[in-house]
């Protein structure tokens, strides 16, 4: 996300314009003939920058990945148009090199991760320090930035948001297949990403000074190379005045991505509101949050999940958790006219045949296990 564009913007203390929101999406590059992951990102990113503008297309850890970075948006219409523009431009660039742009958390066919790593100094340093942990890390997520100008507020708001990460992961799980096999998980991406020693739920943070001390200690241990490598599911951005929610798989279509991002904005809005009211978040342990996220990755939005926004963390039907979330976010969604769009997506994401992981398996079943059909179903159409 362009750094200067978000400077100084966030949740105002009086209702004015909608808070800023931006989205980063990562994609697999698949060969248009075999549908297996291919290592062509340097060429595709170069072409995508010509289509989209240099700030809006970037490489990632693996040469089989492309990332798009949105402009800063305020309205649902702006956001969805921007996501469509970015996906279309990146898909057109991929087509120039006989690739498909595939929004799946993992490569359905072929190995997406290193080797080879992108030939940049940072990624070479990663491989030297973390060794085989870097293998298979060509996984694709969706990051949502919501503007929160005051850092102390942002850190305290993260405490209120962290308990909802298992549900958000369950709703966005979109990576059941990897390297040609069904993993049995709804989000295999999240399991692969959790191998990083700095990844997972954030700790309960008592303020900005506590946050900075924890991050400095992580860097000092060698578990993170720098603050940018603190890969928590939700964090105050290390370089922008935003809260960044990083828990989701990349979603299968632009409408779902936009609805999910608007839901995240509303959740952050609620969190900032209760921080300003002096409400403390429940101090749920990191270990229980990690366990809840494992269950979300394993089963998606079916059955039950621990109610990780409460101290009890009692097993609760996913539908009931959605209702509890809705109570918190609906006022913020309605304020900006986003309630119908997000409500429809939540209902769809909770249905067994509509969530990303279920959609992939349904297509595979329809085509008698032929996973090339799954890639074709997901591939973004070039304009």
General description of the model:
The structure is a single chain. The chain has 383 residues and is α+β, with helices and mostly antiparallel strands. Helix content is 45%, strand content 13%. It contains 14 helices and eleven strands. The strands form three sheets. Strands 1, 2, 3, 4, 5, 8 and 9 form a seven-stranded antiparallel β-sheet that branches. A hairpin with an 8-residue loop joins β10 and β11 (315-317). α2 (41-52) packs across α3 (76-96), α9 (254-276) packs across α12 and α13 (356-366) crosses α14 (371-378). The model is unreliable at 1-8 (pLDDT under 50).
List its salient traits.
383 residues, alpha+beta, 7-stranded antiparallel β-sheet, two-stranded antiparallel ribbon, 13% strand, globular
């Amino acid at each position: 996300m362009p750094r200067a564009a978000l400077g100084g913007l966030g949740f105002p203390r009086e209702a004015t314009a909608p808070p800023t929101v931006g989205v980063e999406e990562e994609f697999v590059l698949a060969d248009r003939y075999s549908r297996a992951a291919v290592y062509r990102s340097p060429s595709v990113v170069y072409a995508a920058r010509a289509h989209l503008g240099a700030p809006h297309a970037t490489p990632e850890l693996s040469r089989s990945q492309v990332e798009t970075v949105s402009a800063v948006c305020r309205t649902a219409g702006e956001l969805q148009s921007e996501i469509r523009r970015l996906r279309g431009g990146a898909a057109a660039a991929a087509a120039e090199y006989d690739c498909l742009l595939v929004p799946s958390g993992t490569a359905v066919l072929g190995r997406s991760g290193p080797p080879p790593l992108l030939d940049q100094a940072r990624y070479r340093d990663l491989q030297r320090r973390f060794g085989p942990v870097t293998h298979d890390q060509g996984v694709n997520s969706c990051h949502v930035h919501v503007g929160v100008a005051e850092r102390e507020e942002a850190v305290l708001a993260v405490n209120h948001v962290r308990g909802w990460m298992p549900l958000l992961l369950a709703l966005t799980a979109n990576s059941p297949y990897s390297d040609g096999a069904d993993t049995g998980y709804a989000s295999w991406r999240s399991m692969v990403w959790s191998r990083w020693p700095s990844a997972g739920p954030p700790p309960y943070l008592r303020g900005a000074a506590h946050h900075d001390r924890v991050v400095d200690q992580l860097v000092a241990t060698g578990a993170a190379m720098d603050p940018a490598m603190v890969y928590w599911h939700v964090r105050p951005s290390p370089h922008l005045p935003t809260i960044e929610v990083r828990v989701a798989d990349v979603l299968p279509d632009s409408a779902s991505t936009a609805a999910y991002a608007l839901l995240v904005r509303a959740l952050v809005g609620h969190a900032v509101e209760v921080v300003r009211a002096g409400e403390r978040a429940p101090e749920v342990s990191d270990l229980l949050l990690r366990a809840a996220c494992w269950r979300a990755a394993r089963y998606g939005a079916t059955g039950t999940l621990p109610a990780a926004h409460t101290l009890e963390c009692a097993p609760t039907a996913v539908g009931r958790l959605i209702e509890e979330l809705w109570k918190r976010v609906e006022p913020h969604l309605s304020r900006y006219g986003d309630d119908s769009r997000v409500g429809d997506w939540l209902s769809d994401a909770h249905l067994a045949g509509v969530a990303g992981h279920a959609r992939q398996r349904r297509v595979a079943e329809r085509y008698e296990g032929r996973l090339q059909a799954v890639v074709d179903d997901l591939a973004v159409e070039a304009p």
